[in-house]
Amino acid sequence: MFSPEGPTLRELAVQALSSVERGYDLLAPKFDHTPFRTPDTVLDAVAAALRRTGPYEEGLDLCCGTGAGMRVLAEVCRSGVTGADFSAGMLAQARRRTDVAGPRVSWVRADARALPFASAFDLVVSFGAFGHFLPRELPGLFRQVHRVLRPGGTFAFPVLAPPRPRHPAFWMLLGFDAVMRVRNALWRPPFVMYYRAFRLGDVRRELERAGFAVELYALPEFGRRDDGSPRVRMVAARRTS
C-alpha cells in the first residue's frame, strides 16, 4: 500500500475524511496499487465458476471501480458488458486502463441504490463493494439488482469466510470497523466502509425476500477451513419472479 505506486498515509487520511464518493475520486489514480482492489485470484475463480453456469448475453459489473471485474464479464458474456460506479474518478481510470476484448463495453456513472436500467441484464456481478452499504440498505440494493435483471438472470459475487476470533485478522477487522464507527460519529460526511457488516446468513435471507433463489458454490481454488467449510464461496442468486 505504501509503495511508490500506492497512496501515502496522508492521501489515505484525506480520503478517509471525505465522503465515499469524493474519497474514491481522490484514490482512483492509485487504487489498483492498494489491497482494496479485488485480487486476480478471486476474479479468476469467479470467472471459472460462471463459465460452468453460462454463457450469458448482457452483463453488469455493479460498483465496478477501476474495472477489474469487467474481464470476468468479458469471459462469460457474449453481447455486451457494462460497468457502473458512482465515482467519476474511478470510472475515468476504468476507461483509461481496462482493455476488454470481445463484447461491447459501456461505462455508466450511477448509484447502485438507484440504477438507471430496467430488465437489461442476464448477469450482474460485484466485487468488494458491499462494505459500503449499511445492513439496512441491503433490501433496497437487492431490489435494484432484481429490477435490472431479466427473468432468470443471475446476481453473482464472492464471499470470504469470516476469520475466527483466534485469528489476528478477526481483531484487525473488528478494530477497523470500530475506528470507522467512531470516525462517522464525530465527522461529517460519513465514510461507510465496514468489513464485518455483510453476513452471509443475512444476505441470503434478504436476497430471497427480494425474489431470488440462492445457491452457494465453493471456490475450490482457495481450499477449506479446519472444519471443512469453504474459505471462499460464490453466491449465485437467480431472479425467480
How big a fraction of the residues is strand? 15-25%
Low-confidence stretches: none
Number of E-state strands: 7
- Give the strand line-up of the largest sheet: 3-2-1-4-5-7-6
| Rounded average pLDDT | 90
Rounded radius of gyration (Å): 17 Å
Anisotropy-based shape:
globular
* Residues in helix, %: 25-40%
Protein name: Class I SAM-dependent methyltransferase
Pfam family, one: Methyltransf_25
GO molecular function, one term: methyltransferase activity
Organism: Streptomyces galbus
Please provide a written account of the structure:
The protein is α/β, with parallel strands linked by helices. It is 36% helix and 22% strand. The protein is built from eight helices and seven strands; from the N terminus they run αααβαβαββαβααββ. Helix 1 (9-16) packs antiparallel against helix 2 and helix 3 (40-53) packs parallel to helix 4. The longest helix has 19 residues, at 168-186. The radius of gyration is 17 Å and the shape is globular. The N and C termini lie far apart (44 Å). It comes from Streptomyces galbus. This is Class I SAM-dependent methyltransferase. InterPro entries: Methyltransf_25, Methyltransf_Superfamily, SAM-dependent_MTases_sf.
